[in-house]
Amino acid sequence: MPSLLLARGHQISTVPEVPLVINSEVFAGAAISRTSAALGLLKSIGAGPDITKVKASRKLRAGKGKLRGRRHRQRRGPLIVYNPLEDGKELALAFRNIAGVESCSVFALNLLQLAPGGHLGRFIIWTSSAFKALDEIYGSTTHPSLLKKDFLLPSSIVSQADIGRLINSSEIQTVIRAAKGEARTKRAGVQKKNPLHNKQVLLRLNPYAAAYSKDKLGSKGLNAGKPERVTGIFSTTLKED
To answer: Is 140 inside a domain boundary?
Structure first.
């Protein structure tokens, strides 16, 4: 997908199509055996801007990696996938000295080269013989592989992976039952509020708190003077069994 390649940073605006497949007749008879010929081929198919971007991205590494044989960092360029049985092995010698360009046999595809860092979107250039060999190596969803015993490509379980679109579709909405209970759901975790500081919580616990505060019943005893002495009747009543 061109969007994945652009998101990864590859310059493919001049590339005619993705995936990019080159006719294997170009490599017949070791026609591409020198770096200059390989560089001219890449520029002719529109991969020149991507190579220029990789060459300009070469920078000195920060940290102690400079002392361990990894002085420079640079971006990844195109990956050339070829068929060594038809295209020949000289192809890899021609592309190996171009900055950022890697080559790989179709019979030994490397996941670290196809998706460096675990991110999809590597700019891959296929030869026509390597592209045809994919059906023999991996087979299809119905026909097994010729090189791997009883190997079939996994088929997708669902054709539409957008769950939100499936749930909101008219076919599902017409058969599902209405939701039970109230429309408003109670939150599972609610923050506990202090009634001494929150007036609404205080009134919920003690409805008389508003009148108590309005009449200032708690502070009336301060200005009332000395309390009256207890009468003798009250004392005898208090001491009764």
So the answer is: yes
